[in-house]
Design a protein that fits this description.
The chain is an alpha/beta fold and 255 residues long. Helix content is 33%, strand content 16%.
Length: 255
């Protein structure tokens, strides 16, 4: 499956905390899969709204942390909040913005706007790096950890053969560069850490819902399947592979 060698520290043996940021379809599925795969990790889900349903036993033991990724004050509070939990060992950033009120992927140059570019970059490019800055003090300096962020194949400059989607493509490409640069810094300061950009494949979530019609059923993943595949990739990565861009099947994606 993955071209990466087996991880010397599989998640089931890790102790500490795991933070999933952005608790939409994939984020919630990751928390559910981590409940099974990493029973010794305290699970934390960070988002603007508490997604847990009252009385739903499946979320017992998962703590919700309020977090607005485009609010510097909210990000500043995250670090002190993490101090109340066991040491942070896994961070997965899943938040993304492709469409919304007044925002749609551009099909041609005439549809590009400054407001849409700024909105996309705020969530898809700046947020993962600012999250890393916020959690930096909570990450171990001399123990293995993963910091992963969902990117997208359309963010690959080398793989762009169709054009369009200016804001989303560029913001994801910017995220890739920012976290590649972060990986180089952490390689010096936190040599056992592994930073990864992950393409989850087309997944049946709200983000991709307007664009699923042309996707073959076998290529449209459920959030649960996407979560399993992403964690399979992470478990196969080592610090020596920090700062790389991976597809859901463990294959590298060109920048």
């Amino acid at each position: 499956m993955s071209s990466a060698p087996p991880c010397p520290n599989p998640l089931h043996a890790w102790q500490g905390s795991a933070l999933v940021v952005g608790c939409g379809g994939i984020g919630q599925a990751l928390l559910q899969e981590l409940t099974r795969r990493a029973p010794q990790l305290q699970l934390l889900g960070a988002s603007r709204r508490d997604w847990r349903r009252t009385g739903d036993a499946s979320w017992q033991g998962v703590s919700h942390l309020p977090l607005d990724l485009v609010d510097d004050g909210s990000l500043a509070q995250l670090g002190p909040t993490l101090g109340a939990f066991p040491p942070l060992r896994l961070v997965i950033h899943t938040a993304g913005l492709l469409h919304g009120p007044g925002l749609q992927p551009e099909k041609r140059l005439s549809q590009v706007s400054r407001a849409a570019l700024e909105q996309s970059f705020a969530v898809n490019a700046f947020a993962p790096l600012l999250l890393a800055q916020a959690v930096d003090p909570a990450l171990p300096a001399q123990a293995p950890f993963h910091f992963a962020s969902l990117s997208a194949r359309v963010g690959s400059i080398g793989d762009n053969h169709l054009g369009g989607w200016y804001a989303y493509r560029a913001a994801k490409a910017a995220q890739n560069q920012l976290l590649r640069t972060l990986a180089l810094e952490w390689r010096r300061r936190k040599p056992q850490g592994c930073v990864s950009l992950l393409h989850p494949g087309t997944t049946a979530t709200a983000l991709s819902s307007p664009f699923q019609a042309g996707v073959a059923p076998e290529k449209l993943f459920s959030p649960a399947r996407a979560a399993r595949q992403l964690l399979d990739v992470l478990e196969g990565l080592t610090p020596e592979q920090s700062g790389q861009f991976w597809a859901w099947d463990g294959q590298p994606i060109p920048w």
